[in-house]
Amino acid sequence: MPGENLSRDEARERAALLSVDGYDVSLDVRSAVGEGEGGPRTFRSVTTIRFRCNEPGASSFADLIAPGVTAVTLNGKDLDPGEVFDGTRIALEDLAAENELVVDAQCAYSRTGEGLHRFVDPEDGEVYLYTQYEPADSRRVFANFEQPDLKAPFRFEVRAPEEWTVWSNGAGELADGVWRFAETKPISTYITCVVAGPYHYVTDSYSRTFPDGTTLDIPLGAMCRKGLAPYFDADDVFLVTRQGLDFFHEHFDYPYPFGKYDQAFVPEYNLGAMENPGLVTFREEYIFRGKVTQASYEARANVILHEMAHMWFGDLVTMVWWDDLWLKESFADFMGTFANVGATRFENAWTTFANRRKAWAYRADQLPSTHPITADIRDLQDAKLNFDGITYAKGASVLKQLVAYVGQDAFLEGARRYFKRNAYGNTRLGDLLSVLAETSGRDMSAWSRKWLQTAGVNSLTPQVLLAADGRIAELAVVQEAAVIAPADHPELRPHRVAIGLYGRTAEGALERYARVEADVDGPRTVIAELAGAEAPELVLVNDDDLTYCKIRFDDTSLATLRDHLGALTDPLARALCWSALWNLTRDALLPARDFVGLVLRFAGRESDIGVLQMLQAWAESALVHYVAPAWRETAERLLSEGALRELRQAEPGSEHQLAWARFFASTASDGADFQLLQELLAGTATIDGLDVDQELRWAFLEPLAAHGAADESALAAELARDDTASGKRHQVRCLAARPSAAVKAQAWAQVVESEALSNALVEATIAGFAQPSRRDLLAPYAEKYFEVIARVWEDRSIQIGMDVVRGLYPSYQDSPQTLEATDAWLASHADAPPALRRLVLEARDDLARALRGQECDAAAITG
Q1: Cβ–Cβ contacts within 10 Å for residue 338, how many?
Q2: Between helices 571-586 and 609-621, what is the axis angle to 10°?
Q3: Taking a C-beta distance cutoff of 8 angstroms, is the pair 231, 205 a contact?
Q4: What are phi and psi of 854, to 5 degrees?
Q5: Which of 174, 115, 182 is nearest to 143 (CA)?
Q6: Which of 393, 401, 354 shows the shortest CA–CA distance to 574?
Q7: Is residue 712 scored above 70 in pLDDT?
Q8: Would you say residue 711 has pLDDT above 50?
Q9: Backbone angles phi, psi at 730, to 5 degrees
Q10: Distance between CA atoms of 63 and 193, rounded to whole angstroms?
């Protein structure tokens, strides 16, 4: 990573000096097939950049990360590559008013998912290529000015093996052995894209006639590896795509501007997806090889719509620098759910948002690295780490609050004006706020200061005083800055909330009987409208999830939930209560055993499959991190018994049955559990309606391997049964999970000391290595972790560095000594890259939170 960084100040200086008229990029990827010749496998990249300089005679630089440069020509003059290229930058001296730069380079294929990634399918030996650039990896493929505000049109041409097809942002055609693609609109470097290989490709179309009589026709395409073709439900992908295009055309009043709309599901992808205009890329795990629940289909639809929203928020109009990353990611995250609810079959997607996305935001907003939604991004390493729960989920939550604040019509009209005024340009915070102020008539600056330019999450707690007649004398909402260090982030914000009063019916259902919307501001707000109302059994602040906050409960409400949570009939209200209870657990205000008990008692009655799966994940997290160590074995047994009970009682063939089967496998704790899993794999035992398909087989094998009940030969036999790229990832994870000191040593060496594994196999190895079932085997690696992370960060790509620093942190050694070791490393590495220190600080905070939770849980025994 040394020398690869780019600071905000450097980007500002270059943007003030240069403007780009266009790129011609020629790639030759025929070297992707056949035997390598030793050293990094490379491809030829020839780039011509036409650009202007505002100060003739000035100097600047172009970006390129490549093993070698053959030739550099500036304005017809040949430059010595050895003098002007340092491995990451090309020095440009004495620029003219109008310039042409030609760079002929040998660029390296990637095995880390950054740049031009090369994947060899173990099933059939076929090679597949795709690019992934955000935030700054297009310079690994062609020379450029790698910053979002130097937009330009691009023309790509690609020479590829004869039997391949190649795609890029624009429409392409093959002539004389060369794929040539239509020139793009002005776009940023990081959203250019090339996909090449023997992909399975399916086509469809979209057409829309607008009120003025014009018609827009968009060719649609979707692709995946040939090995996944039997599982590829392209019809459903196209259905959601067409629904999304209709929705955004109706609400944005700006026709999709990028011609065709291809969607590529690609292997070993680091992200969920990427919004390259005309050629969106997704991780291929969104093609389901086995039975999954509707929550998985909903999540895929949400991602499709998220990336589609980027065509306007991010691609058509782009932030100037990564400080305003929220201008695209927060909007896309909000719009993904907004469109899912408004256009597709997933009408309850806001429930998933409240339960799953906000949990990500709440965690991120309480870390020491929390930051305002409009962040201070000093350089590219900062930018890479800010694709986080603040930028995505908190930003989307705040936008949901903004819609409630200004009104949906004003919000959408502001978006429409924003697109028309800034098409193909770059914007900052003020550009959006100005149009929203126009359309809403509200002062957006005060709202922005409170919500976008400060960090931290507030908690809202109801206070209920009853009169002598048993009715409400006063109901107030108390607001606090709910962070670990409120002195750092003391901001109390204005909230538009709904407050619901709930009571039990004669039939025992817990239902809402009163609701008011109110503005909550400052430390205490009295809700006058509720005075005189019947005394509630449950007060739900932020009912309907209008604002971004952590919900707390008064004593009566908490007691009601302990006894009657399953009787709460409204799915969104139930999801909000579960989320609040989980936050209480993470904040060491509710013993983890109590949360586990609530899951055991009420999760089986949860109708929303997405909420159920989130509860199961939280229960497992409580077991691993927050339960007192002395009670872990008991908790594991109770969860596995409860999971098996629900599995046997679930409707045969239902998605709830599948969810409980997976949860049972993840909590299996004794010989009887392992025997049942083995019998289900062998077919000597069955559970009515449960189809043990290949993906479920691997889910059963992982705990067996982690507990020593499935050896290397069993895993090899399973790989022979599923000799695919997916099967290989599963096998690698299971192999690293085995409870052996030699296995752990080998896995550590493969990840830390070698670069032989691809990004996907690094991820799988780390996941297997860090299994918490045998903490004793992992103990020796706590000290080693702190010895190697600075070197790993320096020597490896930022993606692998992030995977190692996050994934191998010794959270399994959950003791004060690990905190002390972390603090000692931080103290002795004050000059370490800020991005590396941030990752370590975040891991430390998670561990400190776990220890506080364990103390709370232990106190519940003696309290």
Answers
A1: 25
A2: 10
A3: no
A4: -65, -35
A5: 115
A6: 354
A7: yes
A8: yes
A9: -60, -45
A10: 17
Express as a percent the part of the chain with pLDDT over 70. 98
Residue 768 CA neighbour count, 13 Å, CB half: 34
pLDDT band at 715 (very low <50, low <70, confident <90, very high): very high
Measure CA 120 to chain center.
26
Task: Check whether 486 has a pLDDT greater than 60.
Answer: no
Phi, psi of 833 (to 5 degrees): -50, 135
Contacts of residue 723, Cβ cutoff 8 Å, sequence gap at least 6? 122, 123
Residue whose token pair is 């996941």:
767
User: Does pLDDT of 531 surpass 50?
Assistant: yes
Is 340:302 a contact under the CB 8 Å cutoff? yes
DSSP β-ladder status, 200-209 and 215-224: antiparallel
Helices (H) and strands (E) in the chain, counts: 29, 28
Please tell me the predicted confidence (pLDDT) of residue 447. Answer: 87
Phi/psi region, residue 413 (left: phi>0; alpha: psi -120 to 50; beta: rest), is: alpha
Residue 361's pLDDT is 93
Beta strands in 449-581 (DSSP E): 458-466, 472-481, 495-504, 510-520, 524-526, 538-543, 550-551
Give exposure, 203-216, as e/b (b: 16+ Cβ within 10 Å): ebebebeeeeeeee
The backbone torsions φ and ψ at residue 429, rounded to the nearest 5 degrees and listed phi first, read -50, -45
Q: Which of 307, 413, 606, 763 is catalytic?
A: 307
Overall residue count recorded for the chain in this entry: 863
Candidates 672, 620, 623, 621; CA nearest to 644 is: 672
Q: CB burial class (10 A; 0-12, 13-18, 19+) of residue 22? A: middle
Contact 649, 655 (CB under 8 A): no
Could you report the per-residue pLDDT of 532-570, keeping only the tens digit for each? 999 999 999 999 999 999 999 999 999 999 999 999 999
Bridge-partner residues for 501, per DSSP? 514, 539
Distance between CA atoms of 64 and 51, rounded to whole angstroms? Answer: 17
Pairing of strands 42-53, 77-79: unpaired
Q: Is 307 a catalytic residue?
A: yes
Helix axes 571-586, 592-602, angle to 10 degrees: 160
Kindly tell me the burial class for residue 351, based on how many C-beta atoms sit within 10 Å of its own C-beta (0-12, 13-18, 19 or more).
buried
DSSP output for 375-418:
----BHHHHHHTSSTIIIIIHHHHHHHHHHHH-HHHHHHHHHHH
Residue 469: CB atoms within 10 Å: 8
Among 408, 226, 269, CA closest to 334: 408
Tokens of 679: 């019998």
Q: Cα(422)–Cα(417) distance, rounded to whole angstroms?
A: 8
Cβ proximity of 348 and 607 under 8 Å: no
List pLDDT tens digits, range 668-677: 989 999 999 9
Position 860 confidence tier, pLDDT thresholds 50, 70, 90: confident
Exposed e or buried b for every residue in 616-635, given b needs 16+ CB within 10 A? Answer: bebbbbbbbbbbbeebbeeb
Mean pLDDT of the chain: 95
Distances, alpha carbon 698 to alpha carbons 30, 232, 705, 716, 752, in Å? 36, 20, 10, 12, 26
Task: Reply yes or no: is the peptide bond before residue 135 cis, omega within 30 of 0.
Answer: yes
Does residue 445 surpass a pLDDT of 60? yes
From 44-58, 135-149, 374-388, 722-736, the region with the lowest mean pLDDT: 374-388
Token pair recorded at residue 750 = 């493969």
> Whole-model pTM?
0.95
φ/ψ of 674, rounded to 5, equals -65, -35
Specify the pLDDT at position 2: 40
In the 8-state DSSP scheme, what is residue 356? I
